[in-house]
Write a structure and sequence with these properties.
8-stranded mixed β-sheet; alpha/beta
Length: about 250
């Protein structure tokens, strides 16, 4: 097992990016006293929430034993309050970072599978939005998407609120046409990823999640939607990262 802290110069966002990497197994043949050449690992790109960082899932999410058991590598980039989208005004292509650059960089560095079926993306809150947006947008890269209490944003919601939600001005982030999850889901025709969404009934994001679930149903997009008692916190997210892994490994 290895836990690494990686900093590299990102072309997509124009500055250094911090990434936490969890690699589950060293594959040692103790009888022969040597390392074993292991098969390339399945990989989960796991995204943090707003005001969070690349360490959140590792320490607050308590994921080490979970992914050790399933032999899955986990890549956790710093989200930097970006919503993981391309922002032309800021010159920061976070969507491209997640869907292309980071996948390419980490595959070159580590023994990760290059197969679509072995490449997943998930996240919480802002990261849940980023997982859905980039999982749908880069559907040729990711085969499975997990979204825990995702911040389901749409053009309609931004218009209704003037872009000010919970005191934050989302107009400063969203300057493109491909950020509306409802519209994006409507445009996907091929290679639709498997989607798992979970949101607590006490979460302030429950109604937008219900609406997105209904929208996916109307499009005939196969997905798993889970509601249950819970709030917008790691108590809920720790439970559902486990359920998501069980879901993804049994597809």
């Amino acid at each position: 097992m290895a836990i690494l802290h990686l900093d590299y110069m990102s072309i997509a966002i124009g500055h250094s990016l911090s990434v936490r990497v969890y690699l589950p197994h060293d594959h040692i043949d103790y009888a022969a006293n040597k390392y074993i050449n292991a098969e390339p690992m399945k990989t989960l790109y796991l995204l943090n929430g707003f005001h969070g960082n690349e360490n959140d899932w590792l320490y607050l999410g308590e994921i080490i034993e979970l992914f050790r058991q399933h032999n899955i590598a986990v890549i956790m980039p710093a989200g930097l309050n970006s919503f993981y989208i391309d922002n032309q005004d800021r010159g920061a292509k976070f969507g491209e970072l997640i869907g292309k650059e980071l996948v390419d960089v980490t595959r070159r560095m580590f023994n990760l599978s290059t197969k679509r079926e072995d490449t997943w993306i998930a996240g919480l809150s802002m990261g849940g939005y980023g997982a859905l947006r980039n999982g749908l947008y880069y559907n040729d890269v990711f085969s499975v998407v997990g979204a825990f209490s995702p911040a389901v944003l749409s053009e309609d919601l931004l218009k209704q609120t003037g872009g000010i939600i919970n005191g934050f001005n989302y107009n400063r982030l969203f300057s493109q046409d491909d950020i509306d999850l409802f519209e994006l889901a409507s445009t996907i025709k091929d290679q639709i990823p498997e989607i798992y969404i979970a949101c607590g009934t006490e979460d302030f994001l429950i109604e937008p999640n219900r609406a997105f679930h209904t929208h996916l149903d109307s499009l005939g997009i196969n997905h798993t939607y889970v509601e249950g008692t819970g709030n917008h916190d790691f108590v809920y997210w720790r439970k559902h990262i486990k359920e998501f892994v069980a879901y993804a490994t049994n597809l």
